[in-house]
Amino acid sequence: MTLFDAVTATPALLIDRDALDRNIERMAESARARGVALRPHAKTHKSPDLARLQLDAGAVGLTVATVSEAEVFAEAGFDDLFIAYPLWVDAARGARLAALANRARVTVGVDSAEGARALATHAGTAIEVLVEIDSGHHRTGVAPGHAGAVATAAAAAGLTVAGVFTFPGHSYGPGQPGVAATGESTALHTAADSLRGAGIEPGVVSGGSTPTAYLDTTATELRPGVYVFGDAQQLELGSITEAEVALTVLATVVSTRDGVVVLDAGSKSLGADRAPWATGYGRIAGVPDARITALSEHHATVAWPPARGARTGGPDVPRPGPGDRLRVIPNHVCNAVNLTDELIVTRGSDVVDRWPVAARGCIV
What we know:
The protein is an alpha/beta fold. It contains eleven helices and 17 strands. The strands form two sheets. Strands 1, 10, 11, 12, 13, 14, 15, 16 and 17 form a nine-stranded mixed β-sheet that branches. The mean pLDDT is 96.
């Protein structure tokens, strides 16, 4: 029985366990070799089963994006969680954070005096904070030189300031990882000095993204997420090779015409992300010239390459027909995971496990 026969319904998310294990160990070893703590972002996989593999490999804890994600992982027994987001905390959310702090070490991002005071008022002072700085992504975070002022306000509100953090999200672009990593290091150094100038020692200097995770940094902690699975964006950026892609979406061909193949995996299974520089909405494993050129909710339109891989000299792969199955590499793997209930774990042609996506839909 082939793997395609073992998985009876499509679309389905498949995890190549051997590739996954290699990705986890490679990142863990890189962090160890540089003396940097690894706190992977669990919003990518949303799976306690997978998170345990990361901690077993040496991760110091987990990063999450929301309070509800933190609740899921705390319930599963994880006791060191960083919510890397400048939460605006009201009474209801504060009560949830206070309850979390009773069963895990919880750290939260802040980037304003107002946010710090709201956190302390509604969640109490058992929660530590990291001051978020803008290292070039221009989303949230204060200017690096202003980190000390925010830290002073947080300390005045009774919170323990553990350090600073940033996300170099501008690394997601051709030619940008090196530029972003350099800017991140400079910004973190400035922010750490700003805290010291305010009389607060930054015990944690946190940063990192998958495109920059293997580059030199002044950070003491890294928070990559996508590295566990890889995706078409990382392929296009050159951060990984196809051999490092651990997650694919198994899809069935439902229609064909000259040069075009249509699959049953649309935006409701792949996600609809397409960066301006991306060459398609996803790729087909083993067929480097194929591109998903259009997505509907339940259709993926694939432009199939002509014979002999005319564009890149890739393998000559016959066009599949209705009923055939292909593995799709989604553009943004975090979105694809959030659209499914389970991850089907494989080794070779065998299904060896099924992991529930326990934190699926945890957006609050």
